[in-house]
Every structure is written in structure tokens, then in C-alpha cells.
Amino acid sequence: MSEFDFDLFVIGGGSGGVRAARLAAGLGKKVAIAEEFRFGGTCVIRGCVPKKLFVYASQFSEHFEDARGYGWSVGESSFDWPTLVANKDREIDRLEGLYRRGLENAGAEMIASRAELTGPNSVLIKATGQVVTARHILIAVGGRPNPHAALPGHELCISSNEAFHLEELPKAILIAGGGYIAVEFANIFHGLGVDTTLIYRGKEILSRFDQDMRRGLHAAMEEKGIRILCHEVFEKIERGADGRLLAHTSGGKALVADQVMLALGRDPNTEGLGLEAAGVKTGHKGEILIDEYSRTNVESIYAVGDVTDRVQLTPVAIHEAMCLIDTLYHDRPTSPDHDLIATAVFSQPEIGTVGLSEDEASKSHDELEIYRAEFRPMKATLSGRSEKTIMKIVVNAADRKVIGVHILGHEAGELAQILGIVLKAGCTKDDFDRTMAVHPTASEELVTMYNPSYRVKGGERV
Fold first, then answer.
1. Catalytic (active site) residue 148
2. Catalytic one among 165, 248, 338, 439?
3. How confident is the model at residue 384 (pLDDT cuts 50, 70, 90)?
């Protein structure tokens, strides 16, 4: 008889936690997983999945306009926010059901409760007051929106969590932040007919992306009618006599809106988790510190996903969970591979990217070849839309290895996934050049840019 109640106890029912629990239970291990809200976590319940559904909804206004250029007579159209929210909720319910069935079929015990550590091998189930023990404990509680509590009036604002459940669509919204969440929601709300303003303290939106992508998207968003204020922040939010919100900015502006959304980053969700009781060390943001195998300083406790503040992406959390199962139960110590992670911003147009930006590459490589194309996509020729697609390839001049590819345009996220494989395989620019184009497509530009647009040497264009 085991000295522990469980072989593995997982705290957090998001993508990483569920994957670890399901795989471990499928191997015959005795597994419990505790979730205080809903199984599926941020991504499925209030993150990427509902967001992508909202992105689709917000694109139809442009699709209706574009149809006329292709001979379609589109009748009067209207949008109903409650219908979108209700249909989205049904899909989220369906997906949560799939997560639950996967755990149930694998034999994992699901516990609908908050769980907190009480020691290196013990967990308190808050709903019942019961303390259970486990040989190994996995913390996969993810992150939460930073409430920006220092901002006077922050309690009047919403985060991305609440944006999915608004009772009515606002006529005007102010969004603080310049990361992908802020940018994506600015495009969503604008596409649904909301007067949208984005305010960001930095020089340019999307600080970690390639400059051409950032500037190109900024221009496209402003051309659509989204107001972007850089080098500014909110200093105070208050409710006016008419019930609307008044936001005062560092630039002396007083902006009026029905909703103010704060998208100012996410923090590891470790508060009140009992980490001190178990002796688990954390960093300055509250992130759980782990080694290369996702193990904390406490031998029996591991952590994966956003709670570690490594790479805040759902597929990364799943990958880390799978590596953990290899380490614990397959006698294959496996360290997660965080190199060359393809990612997308589901803005309008989208950004798809993998590898180093030009600025990053110039700091670590002596000489670069930059291949860049900017063009009007074929679809826009008859629709009359003035949008542009930008494609950029960053090449290490010394060995011709492609070290970064960046795309701004329709379906850029889909292209990024394929390009992730290409860069992971170590392809060179010569491999790109030898590849036959698929015509007519936008992506053929990736294999027909034969001559560098410019070179970068010592951080300077030459």
C-alpha cells in the first residue's frame, strides 16, 4: 500500500495541468486534479479560444464590404452581441466537456475546489477541508490579468476576462496596453462597430515583435479608424454624472467611453497558494522558480505553464507537461524546448512570426541579409481595400541560415505554424530559393525573394 493518497496531485485544470493529469492517469498512476473554476483554464474558458471566435465575428463587416467588389449584392446586415456571447458560451461548454471526459476516461479524479499546499507532499482541498498527500505535486494554476491597482479608479475597469461576458456591446471603449491582448481586442471591438482607442506607454505597440510588423500593423489599424495613443498612460479613471467613464491621460487628455479595459500584462496566479508552507521559492513577480525539468527547489513539487513565467503560451504549457510526464514516469528526463516558438497575433491583419527579429538578430550575429516584400494582396484588388501584406526573412550572412521569418497579412498565423517547422529543421535561404512557388498565393513571396533588400552589419544597415 502506497504511503501517499495519490501518485500525482495537479493544482490547476488548464491545458498544462489537464494534459499532465490525463497522461499520468493513462499510465495507471493514481491522479487527482483540482480546479476551482472550470476545466480548460484561461485558454479555453476566457482566453485564446473565445477570443478567436470574437475575431471571426469582428471580421464579417469587412467581408460584407469586400463582397461587392466581387459581384455580390449584400443586403442590410446587423450585429447582435447577445447572440455572439450565447453561441460562444455553448462552444466553451462543449470544450470543457471534452476536457472533463478526457480526464474521466483516463481515470483521473476531478476535484471541483481550490487547492492549496500545506507541505512538500500535502494539499488542502478548500471545499471540504480535507488534506490529502501525493508523491508528486504539479502546480499549473496559470496567470491572471494585472489589475493595475495603483491606478486611481482601476476598479471601474474591466480586463480581458470580463470582456467576454459584457451584458451589452459598448459604443466606445478605451484599452490600455500595447501587447497582443490589447491589440487583438482593439481590433475585435472596432470590427464590431465600437469606437476604439488604444493607449500605450511605449514608442510603438507590440514591443517584442519585429519593427516592420509593429509599424505595419499600427498603420493598418489607424487606417481602419482605431485611435492609437503612444507615449501616454491613464492617470485616473472616474465615472461621470452621465454614468459613462472619464479617463484622464498623462498627455492631458480627458477621454470618455462606456468601458475602459486594462490589458497591462498578466501575473503568475500564486497568491494564497501555500507556497511558503511548502518551502517553494518564487521570483519578484510571484512566478514559481523551476529548473530545466520544471522542478521547484522542493524535490516533490513541479510547475508548468504561465505560473512559471517562462513563455506564456498554451502550447508551451502542454509541451512542458508532456516533458514532465517523460521525466517522472518514462525514465526519460526531458527538458522543455523553448527555442524557435512560432506565434501569432490575431489582429487584423494578423501577424505570424518565428525566430529572431531584425533587431534581436543584429545583436547576436555579425552580418545579416534582410529580405523584405511589401505588396497589396490579390484579394484586395477587386475589393478596393488598400491593405498591405509585409513579409520579411532574416538570414545569417555567414552560413545563410534563416533565423527569423515575420509576416503581416491574412492567415499569417497559419503560415507561422508551417514556418516553425522550417526553421526548426534548420533550413537555409538556399533551401527557400530551391523551393517551387505556389501561384497565385501571397506566400509565394517567401520563396521568390532572391536578392537581399538590404544588409545589416554591426547593427547598421549597409
1. no
2. 439
3. confident
